[in-house]
């Protein structure tokens, strides 16, 4: 029976102060001015802000808002907000609702408790937030949310949005230069577009509540493999269970009201794992909306007595969660620059962007790798369920043929005409054949790239800042060279051929999970393999990397130092919490449970012994438990001393290294013992829900 439905077109964006609302409510002249500001063609002035603020407030109050907040994305990776009410006393004991232009434009949250990596001296705790007019304000929970950038008194960025906006400017500027060379005189800007496919797990709230590890760390620190895992491959795209389906419907409603274009939903590979993908939009909006999506996923789950896990690896032994970051460049009038196009000239332009991206990925593979480096994502990359930690590009067979033919100056296979740049057209690439390779970290999928290494919990700003900036750099080099050429086509061809030759080592169309690839990539091709977060992060400060970010004015060197420090500290803190939780669960939950069961076995043993019955079985079980329990106990002691050692190291890099090499390593070996115990100890003795209960309970 069909359910009663609602009008999606009416619901969509109903809580958003979007362009339609602005147009309907703002005086015409103000609306026009504001559009200019939103498109980056004018500065926001106070008189305009006054009108916008008051209109925004009236709209928000009509929709039940009592407060407003400057919403920002500090380096914690999640969003932050401080709420102020609109009330303003008028002197006779009553209040009116007020919101000024100043309050819209600029906020001054106490910033002392946000990570700044030494950027703000403690006496200067002030941070500022500034309205980002390119992202719409919206209402959530009776509060008007104003998307803002967050920066320090002396102007350094303290957030993820500011550098993202700067990187978008950088790539726009350089891409426009290339477009002009191809005779495009109409595009006013180039927009980095992003669609982030979000994976997540759902677990039952009551089951979740019994696991300290899930509560404190977002992942299970213990758990033997369930009897059934994902081996039957019966979950991927499978029928969605009713409880999950109800959740997804509710989630869509919340997202649509907020103007988040949730489009696709399906079951993922692992049991209890699902995905939600939005329609792509500008990178800045995609980043804001992905934050909202993650927040809503968690909130709506609770309303359905479930918990949404966004951790990259909630369960060992089953697939973890990623967030494919689909990325392309588009003109302001909607031409996708990564669409190969139909005419020879469009094809040539496409190849120019493509080759610039190939060069960017090869030269800055380390930046791409470190942009997705977190303690959580370390469990995925290189674990044969997600792409390897080695960054390479997948082009697909057809496109690869074209690239090869271009270099060799030969036919693109017999079936295609000889390919001459700017003269002949590219063969058509069927979109679906380019999407087969799921093992590549960076795959061309017909008209966009899909960066697959991004972790599910990550703020997508980081990887997109890197992509935009490194592509801006290569486009700038190309533009510099091509602008001075007398014969454009000849110069272009030479440039593309030379660049492909120099950087083809980063192209790999084979199986990224194959051990032979790791060997070939590192030993023959010389591609970097940065296995862990601790290996990757310090490369942020490599000379070439500092150069590219400072040159394009995305980060200052000081900001880069501070960010490296924050991210390394974040790694250490994460492992520290996991280690403490591991030790506590092992000591206070697992050992007592093991002893209770052991006592039960020994009781039976004794009574059998007294009765003169053979007790070999009990003896062997008790002995096994006893030796494992002893081993667990000594692992706990080992872990405790590793934690103490790591906590005592003041150098942030050395501390992170110790957390990785010693604390994390000991956690792993402790877990192995505990998981073995789980398989022996009687079910009703085990102190917390098992993987079976967690994965098959929703
Ligand atoms: P695929 O089948 O290759 O995964 P989809 O059409 O399902 O492709 O798209 C996956 C994600 O990529 C969606 O979020 C979609 O909006 C996004 N996407 C599509 N085109 C672009 C583009 N030009 N730029 C950025 N993201 C895009
Ligand atoms: Mg995809």
Automatic annotation (TrEMBL):
Any one of the GO BP annotations: glutamine biosynthetic process
UniProt GO MF annotations: glutamine synthetase activity
Family, per entry: Belongs to the glutamine synthetase family.
Domain GS beta-grasp: start-end pairs: 66-155
Protein name, UniProt field: Molybdenum cofactor biosynthesis protein C
SUPFAM superfamilies in the record: Glutamine synthetase/guanido kinase (SSF55931)
Domain (GS catalytic) ranges: 160-590
Cross-referenced InterPro entries: Gln-synt_C, Gln_synt_N, Gln_synth/guanido_kin_cat_dom, Gln_synth_cat_dom, GS_Type-3, GSIII_N
Top-level taxon of origin: Bacteria
């Amino acid at each position: 029976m069909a359910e009663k439905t609602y009008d999606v077109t009416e619901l969509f964006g109903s809580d958003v102060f979007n362009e339609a609302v602005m147009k309907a409510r703002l005086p015409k002249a103000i609306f026009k001015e504001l559009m200019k500001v939103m498109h980056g063609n004018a500065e926001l002035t106070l008189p305009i802000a006054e009108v916008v603020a008051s209109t925004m407030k009236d709209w928000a109050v009509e929709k039940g808002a009592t407060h407003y907040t400057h919403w920002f994305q500090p380096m914690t990776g999640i969003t932050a907000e401080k709420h102020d009410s609109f009330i303003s006393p008028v002197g006779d004991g009553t209040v009116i609702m007020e919101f000024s232009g100043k309050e819209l434009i600029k906020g001054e949250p106490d910033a002392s408790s946000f990570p700044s990596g030494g950027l703000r001296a403690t006496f200067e705790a002030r941070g500022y937030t500034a309205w980002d007019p390119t992202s719409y304000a919206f209402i959530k929970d009776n509060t008007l949310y104003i998307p803002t950038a967050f920066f320090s008194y002396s102007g350094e960025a303290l957030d993820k949005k500011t550098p993202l906006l700067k990187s978008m400017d950088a790539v726009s500027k350089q891409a426009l230069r290339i477009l002009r060379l191809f005779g495009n005189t109409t595009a006013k800007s180039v927009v980095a577009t992003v669609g982030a496919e979000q994976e997540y797990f759902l677990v039952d709230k009551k089951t979740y509540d019994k696991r300290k590890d899930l509560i404190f760390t977002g992942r299970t620190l213990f758990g033997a493999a369930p009897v059934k895992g994902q081996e039957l491959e019966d979950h991927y795209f499978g029928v969605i269970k009713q409880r999950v389906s109800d959740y997804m419907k509710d989630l869509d409603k919340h997202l649509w009201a907020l103007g988040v274009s949730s489009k696709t939903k399906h079951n993922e590979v692992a049991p209890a794992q699902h995905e939600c993908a939005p329609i792509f939009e500008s990178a800045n909006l995609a980043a804001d909306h992905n934050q909202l999506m993650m927040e809503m996923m968690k909130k709506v789950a609770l309303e359905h007595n479930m918990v949404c896990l966004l951790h990259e690896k909630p369960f060992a032994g089953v697939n973890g969660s990623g967030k494919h970051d689909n990325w392309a460049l588009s003109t302001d009038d909607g031409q996708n620059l990564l669409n190969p196009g139909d005419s020879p000239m469009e094809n040539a332009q496409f190849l120019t962007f493509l080759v610039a991206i190939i060069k960017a990925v090869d030269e800055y593979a380390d930046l791409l790798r470190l942009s997705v480096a977190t303690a959580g994502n370390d469990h995925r990359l290189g674990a044969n369920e997600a792409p390897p930690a080695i960054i390479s590009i997948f082009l697909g067979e057809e496109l690869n043929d074209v690239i090869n033919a271009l270099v060799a100056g030969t036919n693109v296979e017999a079936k295609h005409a000889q390919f001459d740049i700017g003269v002949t057209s590219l063969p058509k690439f069927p979109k679906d054949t380019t999407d087969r390779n799921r093992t590549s970290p960076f795959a061309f999928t017909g008209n966009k790239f899909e960066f697959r290494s991004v972790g599910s919990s990550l703020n997508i700003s980081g990887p997109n800042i890197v992509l935009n900036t490194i592509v801006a750099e290569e486009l700038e080099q190309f533009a510099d060279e091509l602008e001075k050429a007398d014969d454009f086509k000849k110069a272009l061809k030479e440039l593309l051929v030379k660049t492909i030759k120099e950087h083809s080592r980063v192209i790999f169309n084979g199986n990224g999970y194959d051990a032979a690839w790791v060997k070939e990539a590192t030993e023959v091709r010389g591609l970097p393999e940065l296995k862990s977060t601790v290996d990757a992060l310090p490369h942020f400060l490599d000379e070439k990397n500092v150069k590219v970010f400072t040159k394009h004015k995305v980060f200052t060197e000081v900001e880069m130092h501070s960010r490296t420090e924050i991210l390394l500290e974040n790694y250490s803190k994460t492992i520290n919490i996991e280690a403490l939780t591991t030790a506590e669960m092992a000591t206070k939950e697992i050992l007592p449970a093991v002893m209770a069961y052991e006592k039960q076995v020994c009781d039976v043993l004794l009574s059998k012994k007294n009765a003169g019955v053979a007790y070999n079985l009990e003896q062997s079980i008790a002995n096994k438990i006893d030796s494992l329990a002893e081993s667990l106990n000594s692992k706990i002691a080992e872990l405790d001393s590793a934690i103490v050692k790591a906590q005592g190291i003041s150098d942030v890099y050395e501390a992170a290294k110790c957390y990785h090499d010693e604390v994390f390593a000991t956690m792993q070996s402790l877990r192995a013992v505990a998981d073995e115990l789980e398989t022996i100890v009687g079910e009703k003795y085990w102190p917390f829900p098992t993987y079976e209960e967690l994965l098959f309970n929703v």
